[in-house]
Write a structure and sequence with these properties.
The chain has 8 helices and 22 strands. The N terminus is likely disordered. The two termini are 33 Å apart. Helices cover 18% and strands 32% of the residues. The longest helix is centred in the first third of the chain and has 21 residues.
């Protein structure tokens, strides 16, 4: 789960909650991903926020410009600002937006790849992805990837997981194997597992022997001390992990723990930014945590499967159709049809059709939606 930067000393920078500059600056930094920050790095971030606030006030932010900024949401907020007439007429110098898609293609080279659904004939058992890549596990347990080249473990697997730099698989014996583009050392559990998840080069899994939780790799600053008990599912995002117990209750732990409501019982769970969503025993979607407002209201109806990533979720409903909510807009409108599973990534998503085959949709700048045709 990404760490959203919010000014720690907001009271010192704003004399009123109605101060447009304070609200706009804080909102922009909430939308800006900076990863997990140490104490020293946070000082730099706080200085940057203070400088942005001073510049905002010196430029005299207008009500119209502030409305543009405060209306921006999700990972596509920069495109929303470009489309706002007031912002385009006089962009505040302290708001730095990334290049447009056309500019990125020109800068990095390559032939523009049109956004839109791409479909292939293989029904993947498990799908994982990053911003630029997608990987699927075929019926034989082999990994097939498309988009930007990415390192993957060798062998055959029953499940796949991925974060921004690493792809891991669970083999037939329950052992986790990983491949990474990062130079960080990698320590993996030696005991067999039944389920696992990874994020920010860390992992947590369920021991095959007793269903207890084990976590590994770069745990010093994450606070990932597992709770005692037996669990059936674990989900990890940054320095937060949540697990679903045999009693259908959710327990969260880590540096940013999410307290689960005492009356909530779930069939499955998925962690998003600062919050957790799950399919309740009644089949409906319930979300909770400090960050769930970024997701918006969950889709109505009853669901079979659910997946979340950052600020958006998609699920397969009981009628086998897809429903998505949150941001970015590229993922919001899924394809029509009947499906058995869905997986969401940073700016795209993929789903397996009930009649066979896999379809991906969303941002395709790097070919992450170009599902192989064989």
């Amino acid at each position: 789960m990404r760490t959203l930067v919010v000014l720690a000393l907001a009271a010192g920078c704003s004399s009123s909650k109605n101060d447009l500059c304070s609200r706009a600056v804080n909102h922009v930094f909430e939308l800006t991903t900076v990863g997990e920050v140490s104490a020293d790095e946070r000082k730099v971030v706080d200085l940057a926020i203070g400088a942005a606030l001073a510049r905002c006030r010196s430029e005299g932010l207008s009500d119209a410009e502030a409305s543009c900024i405060l209306a921006a949401r999700g990972l596509d907020w920069d495109e929303g600002l470009r489309a706002c007439p007031a912002f385009a007429a006089r962009p505040p110098t302290w708001v730095i937006v990334r290049p447009s898609r056309e500019e990125r293609i020109r800068i990095f080279g390559g032939t523009p790849t049109p956004d839109g659904p791409r479909q292939g004939p293989v029904s993947y058992r498990s799908l994982v992805g990053t911003i630029k890549s997608t990987c699927g596990l075929d019926a034989a347990g082999s990994i097939q990837c498309w988009g930007q080249k990415i390192k993957v473990p060798s062998g055959t697997f029953t499940e796949l997981r991925a974060d921004d730099t690493m792809v891991c698989g669970l083999d037939g014996a329950g052992r986790v194997q990983c491949a990474s583009d990062s130079d960080l050392p990698l320590r993996l559990p030696t005991e067999p597992l039944t389920d696992f998840d990874i994020a920010r080069h860390r992992g947590c899994g369920l021991r095959k022997t007793d269903g207890s939780i084990v976590c590994w790799n770069h745990l010093d600053d994450a606070g990932l001390t597992p709770p005692v008990g037996q669990f059936v599912e674990v989900a990890l995002a940054g320095a937060t992990a949540c697990a679903l117990g045999l009693d259908e209750r959710v327990t969260c732990f880590g540096n940013e723990p999410l307290a689960s409501p005492p009356d909530a019982r779930f069939r499955s769970i998925a962690v998003a930014n600062g919050g957790i969503c799950g399919i309740t025993t009644a089949g409906t979607i319930a979300c909770f945590g400090d960050g769930v407002e970024r997701l918006g209201a969950p889709a109505p109806g009853t669901f079979r499967t659910l997946d979340c990533r950052r600020a958006h979720c998609c699920g397969v409903k009981d009628d086998a159709t897809l429903s998505c909510w949150g941001a970015p807009h590229e993922v919001y409108e899924p394809p029509a049809g009947k499906f058995t599973s869905v997986a969401v990534f940073v700016r795209h998503a993929c789903a397996v059709r009930a009649e066979g085959g896999t379809i991906c949709w969303g941002d395709n700048d790097w070919g992450a939606c170009n599902v192989p045709q064989r």
